[in-house]
Amino acid sequence: MRKSWFIYIIAGVALFVFNEQAHCQAKVDSTDMRIASLPDSARLAELYSIATSYSSSSLSKALSYADQRLTIANKINDPNHIASTYNLYGNLYLESGLYSNAEKYHRIAYEIYDSIGNNEGLATECHNLGLVFYNRGDTLKSLNYYKESVSVRKRTGNYRKIGDGLTTLGEAYLRYHEYDESLKSLLEALEYYGDISGYPRKFDCLAFISDNLITIAPGKALQWISRMEEENRLINRRSYDQMIKFRYAAYWLATG
To answer: What range defines the domain where residue 147 resides?
Structure first.
């Protein structure tokens, strides 16, 4: 009797797994059919989105959709879409911790964007290469690429993204305990953000300034933590409330 029940259970589990696999495959087939019916421009956008959605769950699936995207980009011979696909490959490998592959593909994208004078794309690749080397623990190369990203961003005139680049650079300097350089970058970022409010990356900038000052000049940190509170009244994220409380605690510990 026990043996019979065991067989029934195993058979039931196997049937469930088979049905789930069939359902997933049907979903993939349906997605592929829908994509195939789209015009090239829409297919490129959809394939990028789907590949990115698989970045943390299935590298092989993500790469297969990136491969499809590269085929289309090459077919229409659009260097911007070709470069953005290589950027996609780099992001997928970076997400998976395969830094050598990530560097390879981001470098290819970098070269293409540079050759066609696409400063937005070039700045993005500089940032991504900085992130690759940051994850590898290569301080000098990471900072150099982040600085290059900011330099290229400044040619675009996009103040929000310039602020973002400077915030990233300031964050990197902070992680490497170069507090003066970090503060310099972060305060410059605030100048570019200007009147922009309710913006998460500006909140991050204020948080990093607070972290710097808690370490090197605790008495000056309180006003920046208060500015974090003001910014989060517009953003209204509970996780940011916790970040603010943490910095108040660090401030009180530092000032006694």
So the answer is: 40-157
Check whether residue 109 and residue 169 sit in a common domain. no
Find, among 87, 90, 159, 83, the residue nearest to 115 by Cα: 83
Q: Is residue 67 part of a domain?
A: yes
Give the model confidence (pLDDT) of 104-144 as tens digits: 999 999 999 999 999 999 999 999 999 999 999 999 999 99
Three-class secondary structure assignment of 55-95: CCCCHHHHHHHHHHHHHHHHHHCCHHHHHHHHHHHHHHHHH
Name the phi and psi angles at 15, rounded to 5.
Answer: -65, -40
Last residue of a domain, one of 157, 175, 196: 157
| pTM, 2 dp | 0.84
Rounded to whole angstroms, the Cα distance separating 27 from 2 reads 37
Q: In which residue are the tokens 């937005």 written? A: 120
Residue 130 lies in a domain: yes
Residue 72 falls in which region: left (phi positive, over 0), alpha (psi -120 to 50) or beta: alpha
Of the three residues 139, 157, 175, the one that is the final residue of a domain is 157
Taking CA 54 as the corner, what is the angle to CA 237 and CA 16, rounded to the nearest 5 degrees? 105
Question: CA–CA separation, 81 vs 43, rounded Å?
Answer: 11
